């Protein structure tokens, strides 16, 4: 079993890192593993644990509560973040699931279990829930109680070296993905001033993605986000 060397992954305590989290459920009818991928932020905390805070309504939360296992995927391709963040059960842009061809499985002998991960990841951490608690989060939408999971890392693997830093276009693309998900919440909450504010930021970011360089993955992300927000704005 490969254990974690945080320095090998470039992680520092208390820093926030954007990753793609993969969890799973098991279908009741034929006991098949059903993977789920979501964009999440993680922190490394005291005791060399990882902390993650999925919302109560998400599949990530439900899967962690049920099965306690998660793969943390470090991915260079910003377009995969868009696919993970903008999928919806009743998607108006046809993106109901993260594409299955991007998944692979790591068999953990200790748990006799296949854990889904993103095969384009340059490295993965597999964590198991050790503790759950709640905290209050404040943002533009007000205050909300959110769950927090502390994870023990039980397996790590680095598939390739990656010293990649997102360029400006890719950073803007990632910020635009996050803004698009917030735009949807503002629309659902009928918060027109916030919706307008977020929309203006998205348009500005998308114009700059074009201006800063012809990055293929950033441009693909921009196109997907544009389709997504067009259905929201109408």
Major sheet attributes: 6 strands, antiparallel, barrel
- The fraction of residues in strands falls at 25-35%
Indicate the percent of residues in helices.
Answer: 25-40%
Residue runs with pLDDT of under 50 for 5 or more positions: none
Q: How many strand units?
A: 8
Derived structural class? alpha+beta
H/I helix tally: 6
Kindly report the spatial arrangement of strands forming the biggest sheet: 1-2-3-8-7-4
Tell me the Rg in angstroms: 18 Å
Mean pLDDT: 91
Q: CA-to-CA gap between the ends?
A: 51 Å
- SSE string: HEEEHEHEEEEHHH
How does this model look, in words?
It contains 6 helices and 8 strands. The protein has helices at residues 6-9, 59-67, 78-86, 168-188, 192-212, 216-233; strands at 16-26, 33-45, 49-52, 69-74, 103-108, 113-118, 123-139, 142-158. It has a 6-stranded antiparallel barrel with strand order 1-2-3-8-7-4. It has a two-stranded antiparallel ribbon with strand order 5-6. A hairpin with a 6-residue loop joins strand 1 and strand 2. Helix 3 (78-86) packs parallel to helix 4 and helix 3 runs parallel beside helix 6 (216-233).
Describe, in short, the structure shown.
With 234 residues, this protein is an alpha+beta fold. 35% of the residues lie in helices and 34% in strands.
Keywords:
two-stranded antiparallel sheet, 234 residues, 6 helices
Helices and strands in order, then pairings?
Elements: H1 6-9, E1 16-26, E2 33-45, E3 49-52, H2 59-67, E4 69-74, H3 78-86, E5 103-108, E6 113-118, E7 123-139, E8 142-158, H4 168-188, H5 192-212, H6 216-233
Antiparallel strand pairs: 1-2, 1-4, 2-3, 3-8, 4-7, 5-6, 7-8
Helix pairs in contact: 3-4, 3-6, 4-5, 4-6, 5-6
């Amino acid at each position: 079993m490969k254990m974690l060397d945080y320095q090998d992954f470039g992680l520092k305590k208390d820093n926030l890192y954007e990753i793609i989290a993969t969890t799973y459920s098991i279908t009741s009818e034929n006991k098949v593993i059903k993977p789920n991928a979501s964009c999440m932020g993680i922190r490394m905390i005291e005791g060399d644990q990882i902390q993650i805070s999925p919302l109560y309504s998400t599949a990530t939360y439900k899967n962690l509560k049920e099965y306690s296992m998660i793969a943390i995927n470090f991915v260079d391709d910003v377009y995969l973040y868009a696919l993970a963040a903008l999928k919806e059960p009743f998607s108006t842009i046809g993106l109901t699931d993260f594409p299955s061809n991007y998944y692979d499985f790591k068999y953990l002998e200790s748990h006799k279990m296949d854990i889904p991960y993103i095969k384009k990841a340059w490295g993965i951490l597999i964590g198991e829930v050790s503790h759950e608690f709640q905290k209050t989060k404040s943002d533009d939408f007000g205050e909300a109680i959110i769950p927090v999971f502390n994870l023990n890392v039980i397996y790590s693997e680095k598939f390739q070296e990656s010293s990649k830093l997102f360029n400006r276009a890719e950073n803007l693309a990632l910020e635009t993905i996050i803004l698009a998900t917030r735009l949807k919440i503002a629309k659902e909450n009928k918060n027109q001033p916030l919706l307008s504010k977020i929309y203006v930021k998205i348009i500005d970011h998308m114009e700059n993605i074009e201006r800063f360089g012809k990055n293929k993955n950033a441009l693909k992300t921009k196109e997907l986000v544009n389709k997504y927000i067009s259905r929201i704005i109408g």
